[in-house]
Amino acid sequence: MRTQTELLTLAERMPKAELHLHLEGTLEPEQMFQIAKRNNILLKYHSIEELQAAYQFSNLQDFLDLYYQGMSVLLKEEDFYDLTMAYLEKVHAQNVVHVELFFDPQGHLARGIAFDIQINGITKALTEAEQKWGMTYQLIMSFLRHLSEESAFETLDLAKPFLDKITGVGLDSSELNHPPEKFSRVFQSCKDLGLKITVHAGEEGPPDYVWQALDILNVDRIDHGNRALEDTQLTSEILRRRLTLTVCPLSNLKLCVVDSMASHPIQKMLQLNLNATVNSDDPAYFGGYMNENYRALIQESNLTEDELYRLAKNSFAGAWLSTAQKNHYLALVDDAFKAKEPT
Ligand SMILES: Nc1ncnc2[nH]cnc12
Ligand SMILES: [Zn+2]
């Protein structure tokens, strides 16, 4: 049996997939100031310290208010490229080998930043990472649920010339009072276009929103899903459909979705045999990337070796990859667990 220290090392060196990551949530304070400066944008905060001091959230909306302010420094293709590349470099160093990342086009379109500027900057960095390190990726365009159905349809129209670069669509932002059913027709159009669907549900919203994600939007994956555990019929249905839950431990702690890491429901999800995965959500705001999320679970929730193994495997099983690619990565996970600790 491995010791806790050995588990920490193993979590760092094992290959991982990240399935729930908002690109705009990787904007570190230093980079925010740097990009703001070159774009002649005056931030509300005078220093990195002052900005970081504002990262105290009591709920999702507190965070979102800052998140939308932060992303307003992104104007040019090179800004989107630099942001994406900074994230990819960080997680490459953490042995993340596959990423599926969200971007929020409406958060930029509203400020007059054209769709092509956003997606070209992002995909340039992703293709470079693939060439340099063999990192694989998928891009997910997310709709902002506090905006209208009409706005989501307009965004989908703008995305149509770029669908070869987009694998799936998501639904994020303020969950309460914006149930999945509000977007049933938009997601039907996305399905008709052959796009995968994953939506944030059960982060703050009730189990009924997770049911809607399943029964009305017919999702391929669920982002968060914590509150699904309040309804045993719902967890049985998620299990029956073998849907992956993209869980975000440090995010849940920072946004007061859970009271402590020790009481985080991810181990309960695994006990129920749900395909739970570990992800960082908005790492620049929540205090850590992939390895820090695993670290918190190992140190504060006493994650076991078997749980760690299942989480690593689930991340690839739930990825939007071909069976051959999945099998390749799953074999690498097995190798990492079989290998002796480096002395
Ligand atoms: N955790 C989260 N929940 C909902 N919308 C988001 N947008 C960025 N991060 C989010
Ligand atoms: Zn999220």
Strand and helix map with partners:
Layout: H1 4-13, E1 16-22, H2 29-38, H3 48-53, H4 60-71, H5 77-93, E2 96-103, H6 105-109, H7 115-133, E3 136-144, H8 149-159, E4 168-172, H9 184-192, E5 196-201, H10 207-215, E6 221-224, H11 232-240, E7 244-247, H12 249-254, H13 266-271, E8 275-278, H14 283-286, H15 290-300, H16 305-317, H17 323-338
Helix pairs in contact: 1-15, 5-7, 16-17
Structure description:
- With 343 residues, this protein is of the alpha/beta class.
- The protein has one domain (4-337): TIM Barrel (Alpha-Beta Barrel).
- The protein contains 17 helices and 8 strands.
- The chain has helices spanning 4-13, 29-38, 48-53, 60-71, 77-93, 105-109, 115-133, 149-159, 184-192, 207-215, 232-240, 249-254, 266-271, 283-286, 290-300, 305-317, 323-338; strands at 16-22, 96-103, 136-144, 168-172, 196-201, 221-224, 244-247, 275-278.
- It has an 8-stranded parallel β-sheet.
- Helix 5 (77-93) packs parallel to helix 7.
- The radius of gyration is 19 Å and the shape is globular.
- The two termini are 16 Å apart.
- Residues 15-335 form the Adenosine deaminase domain.
- Belongs to the metallo-dependent hydrolases superfamily. Adenosine and AMP deaminases family. Adenine deaminase type 2 subfamily.
- One of its GO terms (molecular function) is hydrolase activity.
